[in-house]
Specification:
4 strands; two-stranded antiparallel sheet; alpha+beta; single chain
Length: 98
Amino acid sequence: MMTVKTNVAGISLAGSLATALALLASPASAGPAPGQPTMDKCYGVSLKSQNDCAAGAGTSCAGTSKVDYDPAAWKYVAKGTCETISTPKGMGSLKAKS
């Protein structure tokens, strides 16, 4: 027979696990991806929710871009390749596009 103490402990453990999983799954609170010495920040090349940072109004940073190829969002790419990346909205840029 389960006691009240056992039920409370089980519920508490389940709540802790659910909170931990929610925090891991939530990119909205993520900051910018750490610097990469062999990479360049390339604007306008990331797909929706796959940017490394700088996604503009209504977003908080990494993984929060709302559209593909957002000109205000950047993604790390191999150094020297950014401006050679072609997207349906134009070429990648080392500076934010307006």
